[in-house]
Amino acid sequence: MGKILLFDAGNTNTKLCLADDQGLGESYTLPTRPANTDDDWGLKIESILLREDVDPADIEACVISSVVPPLDPLISRMARRFLNCEALFAARDLPIDMDNEYARPEQVGADILVGCYSARMTYDDKNLIVIDFGTATTLACVQNTAFKGGLICPGVLSSAGALAGGTAKLPKVDLTVSDESITWGKTTEECLNQGLVFGFASMVDGLVDKLSVQLKDPFVVATGGLARTIAQVSDSIDELRPDLVMEGLWMAYYNR
């Protein structure tokens, strides 16, 4: 059996991962630039396959979660030209086995549905909250096999960028803290790191607490680029799964 190439295309970055029926392989992160051409994407994919010692002819499908519509036709053309295979887009070409109770189901990002599906297939808990720390911070609520809805909040990096770009004296920071206990910063960098990391942890802890009024005793899963940073100081996050969307794409493809 051949391999599949998974794409988690977000507004800031696109994560790629090779996989087969045994599970996920190495993953790579590239900047999302919809203005690039399909040839540009194809040449980058060829470089990744060469590094992984994988023949392009061994790729049987590209499986994509995308929230960037201008990128979709580029990946489709790239898959046909460089890999001689079809691109399967989650929730459009590849069904995601979740009941979608959103008032306007078409507005739900594919990454949200795929992440919820992955969490549902992984955990036995009736109630789940899936937190994705991406360009935006999202909290998706799952009850049994239904996506009930959720919350969309500012992202950690976008908030940090807005602060650095909108002020004259605030520097860019690395968003790391050395201890799980909050302390007041004694440099501007420490003040920003403490404020952003602990601030976002407190935000999601408070929101999980309020959502728990409707969603009793939820199991909380965190994913996304900065999930590890926030999870280390959060009181509500039960488990960290950085590759939750990739795992969901893999499950959806092989369970189809």
From TrEMBL:
Positions bound to ATP: 8-15, 135
- Which key words tag this protein in UniProt? ATP-binding, Coenzyme A biosynthesis, Cytoplasm, Kinase, Metal-binding, Nucleotide-binding, Potassium, Transferase
InterPro entries for the chain: ATPase_NBD (IPR043129), Type_III_PanK (IPR004619)
Catalytic residues identified in the record: 111
- Is the keyword Protein transport in the record? no
Necessary cofactors: K(+); NH4(+)
Cite the cofactor comment: A monovalent cation. Ammonium or potassium.
Name the positions where substrate binds.
102, 109-112, 188
Q: According to the UniProt record, what class of enzyme is this? A: transferase
Q: Does the keyword Disulfide bond apply?
A: no
Q: Which EC number applies?
A: 2.7.1.33
Question: What CDD domains does the entry give?
Answer: ASKHA_NBD_PanK-III
Name the domain of life: Bacteria
Catalyses which reaction(s): (R)-pantothenate + ATP = (R)-4'-phosphopantothenate + ADP + H(+)
Subunit structure as annotated in this protein's UniProt entry: Homodimer.
Role noted for this protein: Catalyzes the phosphorylation of pantothenate (Pan), the first step in CoA biosynthesis.
NCBIfam families under this entry?
A: baf, PRK13321.1
Q: What is this protein called?
A: Type III pantothenate kinase
Species assigned in the record: Pseudodesulfovibrio nedwellii
Q: What is the lineage of its organism?
A: Bacteria, Pseudomonadati, Thermodesulfobacteriota, Desulfovibrionia, Desulfovibrionales
